[in-house]
Amino acid sequence: MSATKSYGERAKLHSNPTAKAFLELMERKKTNLSLAADLTSKAALIELADKVGPYICLLKTHIDVVEDFDQDLVDQLTALAKKHDFMIFEDRKFADIGNTVKLQYSSGIYKIASWSDITNAHTVPGEGIIRGLRDIGLPLNRCLLLLAEMSSAGTLAKGDYTTTTVELARKYKDFVVGFIAMRRYEDKEGDDFIYMTPGVGLDQTTDGLGQQWKHPEVVVRDLGCDVIIVGRGIYDQGRDPAHEAQRYQEAGWKAYKERIQL
Ligand code: S5P
């Protein structure tokens, strides 16, 4: 059962090189915190990533909200990833047919596949979306998360949709390394998926727009997820991002330790 194993033990056994490197990174840096850096200015995004970098394993971007995006932003984020030892996850939520997502992933202004270690996709279109992204990502050592559930109120990603998404992940294990999910699913022989969970907050439970925030203890210890994704809880106005990131890192790590009972 991967839920009770340490990230380090799981890294040793993992067959996907990027997932392996990511699990090793979490163990080495003692953090399961991902920053959701939803900022619209390049300078602000770089400043936030530099401040919060020491506390995170993963920087999650929405690169298409940045108003002054350029290649230099990518170069700077990549340099910060090296400096602080974190990986990058462009939260693109691909949702089209295989041929179209190949173009969206590799081309256009953002060229996501050239810099983002991890990206994600909805399974609404069926398995062609995974095959298209895999054609581009696998040769570059990238990997994919599938959105099996969502954190927002009234989400349609549930029941059979979630079950089929998990089956698709098993079918394309060489490229699909985990899920955006609200809880850990039962393992089958040979499974070791990484569960990343948004909708995490220490101080508030909702944003008035459908987002639902849960405590890291619930998400990691009780529901078995591996990575907490936190945005506004860290960078909202009036907060000190480095201080908040440290709080979330400590809370996430404590919950993980309790889960694996070290
Ligand atoms: O179901 C989801 C999936 C994702 S990736 N719910 C989410 O909130 N997200 C993302 O997580 C969302 O796009 C945002 O970037 C982040 C949550 O940010 P917060 O400010 O609510 O913590």
Automatic annotation (TrEMBL):
Keywords: Decarboxylase, Lyase, Pyrimidine biosynthesis. Its EC number is 4.1.1.23. Pathway: Pyrimidine metabolism; UMP biosynthesis via de novo pathway; UMP from orotate: step 2/2. Residues 32-248 form the Orotidine 5'-phosphate decarboxylase domain. It holds the Pfam family OMPdecase. SMART domains: OMPdecase (SM00934). GO terms for molecular function: orotate phosphoribosyltransferase activity; orotidine-5'-phosphate decarboxylase activity. It catalyses: orotidine 5'-phosphate + H(+) = UMP + CO2. Signal peptide: none annotated. The keyword Lyase applies. It comes from the Eukaryota. Substrate binds at residues 38, 60, 151, 211, 231-232. GO terms for biological process: 'de novo' pyrimidine nucleobase biosynthetic process; 'de novo' UMP biosynthetic process. The active site is at 91 (for ompdecase activity), 93 (for ompdecase activity), 96 (for ompdecase activity). Belongs to the OMP decarboxylase family. NCBIfam families: pyrF (TIGR01740). This is Orotidine 5'-phosphate decarboxylase. It comes from Modicella reniformis. The lineage of its organism: Eukaryota, Fungi, Fungi incertae sedis, Mucoromycota, Mortierellomycotina. The gene is URA3.
